[in-house]
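Q&A log
Question type: sequence-to-structure
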Amino acid sequence: MASTNIPETITLPWASDFHCHLRQGAMMDTVTPMVEQGGVRTVLAMPNLTPPLTKTHMAVEYGQKLQKLAPNVHFILTLYLNPDLTPEEIKKAAEAGITAVKVYPSGVTTNSDWGVLDFKIYYPTFAAMQEHNMVLCLHGECPSDADKGICILNAEERFLATLCELHEAFPKLRIVLEHATTKAAVDCVKSLGDTVACTITAHHLFITVDDWAGQPHHFCKPVAKFPSDRDALQQVVKSGHPRFFLGSDSAPHPRQAKQGEKPAAGVFTTPVLVPLVATLFEKLSCLDKLEGFISTNGRTFYQLPSL
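Response status: OK
Response body:
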């Protein structure tokens, strides 16, 4: 007999996805109209295009293209951290309505070849972001380095010291550790102040290392880890912690790129995003926490109005 604690229907606001790859060209034209299909009307659009969105005018023009493809969706625009992103450019970006800057450590994922090698050289930029109330979005992994004992299975955990250093140096800067995959990341974010939050993807709530090893369509960066890590992700969303919220990291690729000799990193969930997350929350008996995870928590952190 079905549990009487599970409602037959629930009513939700449109979801907010605080990490989504919408690509460019024909792929952008195909996937952007699917955002609403997945139950989402607010999207933080990633800047790792080719070339990456490194200037204010580039991000604004990209946003205009996305808006034409999905007129009902609110697109939150981002810039790609790079040496040209000076404090002056940050001021310009803030005035243009750009909300966030994305950090990719060099070489850790798709189109990250222009990424960061030394965080300290960007401290003036981070100070300007703090002044202008922008959000710093972190792909939280160290580049693989055999000499340092870093590989894709521990790259996230090894990055957490950098997160703590950034928070200590800029305590008023809102920072998001994106697509957490480990218990260590969950514990770290919970231990930090209210200006540090964390996104969790739909797929990382389901899969572990066994699901992507040999299965290219489940392969993403950061990779899914151990069952104990997945359990920690599930438990923190089940608890309704206000600084953990949905960021799908939905990342489409052509089939040949996923099934080739070296599969591209990315799991595409955009068209089924809210039903996918709701399925897990029902399984975990925490549908009462679903609205917070897919909407309220993230909108509060990003200082967006309630829906």
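Response note: Strands lie at 15-20, 40-45, 74-76, 78-80, 100-103, 135-139, 174-178, 196-200, 244-246.
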